[in-house]
Amino acid sequence: MRTMMWSRHSRRIDPIRRRQMNVGAEAAVGDVLLFLHADTTLPEEYAQAVEDALADHEVVVGAFSLAVDAAPTKYRIVEAVVGIRCRLSALPYGDQAIFLRSDTFHDVGGFADLPLMEDFELIRRLRRRGRVEVLPQRVTTSSRRWERLGVVRTSVLNFIIVVAYHLGVPPTRLAGWYRGRA
């Protein structure tokens, strides 16, 4: 692996976020891309962990396990549920610092033209090509959204959005739900 490019982007829903990530990926000169949310921090030795994961050519995309930066037990439950979801579905979300080979990213056309779910859709397309690896090392993400909306409400809303996406609800409507506009 020559070098790694990573991109930090805001959790704020922005209809052009996927364009920003695609432009960053296009400008990257490295063999590996890592997309990192602005409110998420990488673990120590993340670069070696990514390199080791992608050394296995069956792995097409990876992400890290999730830690939330707040002490209450309810956040340990969120972390556990995310871990179970990732093991059962092989669908980590963008706040888990998605990484992959740059040629693979470009081969699948990058992030889809969606106002929401672009990370989810990318992983769905990639897992058809090979294995999704969720590393045991943890990224730490902000508890801000869970604190603002509540853990149960945030978790239920996320679940409803994923189910609705599978059922064909337009992503523009889903983005409105996510932003709190019905």
Q: Care to describe what's here?
A:
With 182 residues, the chain is an alpha/beta fold. The protein has one domain: Spore Coat Polysaccharide Biosynthesis Protein SpsA, Chain A (Alpha-Beta Complex), CATH 3.90.550. It has eight helices and six strands. It has a six-stranded mixed β-sheet with strand order 1-2-5-4-6-3, with helices on both faces. Helix 1 links the parallel strand 1 and strand 2. Helix 7 packs antiparallel against helix 8. The longest helix has 17 residues. It is globular. About 5% of the residues have low confidence.
What descriptive keywords fit this protein?
single chain; Spore Coat Polysaccharide Biosynthesis Protein SpsA, Chain A; 6 strands
Strand and helix layout:
Elements: E1 4-9, H1 17-27, E2 32-37, E3 40-41, H2 46-55, E4 59-68, H3 73-89, E5 98-101, H4 102-107, H5 118-127, E6 131-141, H6 144-149, H7 151-166, H8 171-179
Parallel strand pairs: 1-2, 4-6
Antiparallel strand pairs: 2-5, 3-6, 4-5
Helix pairs in contact: 7-8
Q: Give the N-terminus to C-terminus distance in angstroms.
A: 45 Å
According to CATH, what is the topology?
Spore Coat Polysaccharide Biosynthesis Protein SpsA, Chain A
Write down how many β-strands occur, each being a DSSP E stretch of 2 or more residues. 6
Oligomer: single chain
Tell me the CATH architecture.
Answer: Alpha-Beta Complex
What composes the largest sheet? 6 strands, mixed
Order of helices and strands: EHEEHEHEHHEHHH
